[in-house]
Each structure stands twice: as C-alpha cells, then as structure tokens.
Amino acid sequence: MERRARRLLEFESGSPEPALVLKWCAPDIICDFAGDRARLPYAGRHTGVDALLGIIRAVHVDFEQRPLGLSRILIEDARAACWRQVEWRHRGTGRTGVCELADFVRFDNGLIVECIEFRDTVSLLRMQD
C-alpha cells in the first residue's frame, strides 16, 4: 500500500500516470476533492475511475505540478494518510506557489476504493486569479 501510494502521489510526469490509476484503482472508486466547485471545477465528489482520470486531466490543463515529495505517510489496516507538498504553476497566469495536500486513501483487495483530498485551495486560487 505504501509503495502504491508513494508511486501515485510522487509522480514525475507532471500528473499521476493514467496506466497506474487504471491498474490500482477500483472501477467504482469514490473521490472527494475539497474546495468550492464554483472556483475549482474539479472539486466535489466523483465516482468511477473514468471520472478520476478526467479530474487528473482537468488539473493538468490548468496547472503544471512538481511534487516536492511525501512529508508523511501513515498506514493502518487498509487505509493510508499522506501529507505532501506540490509546487504548482498556473498555465494561464504563470503564477507559482507551493500547495500542501492531505490525501486519505482506502484500499480493498489491493485496489484503491476511496480517496479524499484536502488541499490548500487559497494558494491555488491566488495562482489562478
């Protein structure tokens, strides 16, 4: 679980790898991304691996991302909690910043079935406005 969480969240290609998302996520994964949907269109609850891939693509259109690494990861039973930092650059404004994120992931039979992500939305909004 830790290896999978690290590989998905410490992506090197500018966004999580779609092939790994398809391989390691349940087809009916539930994803909750904190934030105001009026300001961050990908915020909210999404169901299904295709929806998750759509969110990953939408974020990649708006922002360049460079992971600064996982600061902490805690695993208990079939759950992982990760705190990480990502350097972001908004493609429209060119503004940059570092955003802190907390991800809470639940596994079932080796697949990720739920992901809840909280991010520093104020930093993201400052970059895009």
Defining key terms:
129 residues, alpha+beta, Nuclear Transport Factor 2, Chain: A, 6-stranded mixed sheet, 4 helices, 47% strand
Q: SSE layout and pairings?
A:
Layout lengths: L1 H8 L8 H7 E9 L10 E4 L1 H14 E14 L2 E12 L5 E13 L2 E9 L1 H8 L1
In brief:
By secondary structure, the protein is an alpha+beta fold.
Q: Total number of helical segments?
A: 4
What is the alpha-carbon Rg in Å? 14 Å
Average pLDDT reading? 87
Q: Major sheet, described briefly? A: 6 strands, mixed
Low-confidence stretches: none
CATH architecture grouping: Roll
| Broad shape | globular
Helix residue percentage: 25-40%
Give me the secondary-structure category.
Answer: alpha+beta
The largest sheet has its strands arranged as: 2-1-6-5-4-3
H and E order: HHEEHEEEEH
Share of β-strand residues: over 45%
Tell me how many strands there are: 6
CATH top-level class: Alpha Beta
Q: Termini, distance in Å?
A: 37 Å
Query: What is the number of independent domains?
Result: 1
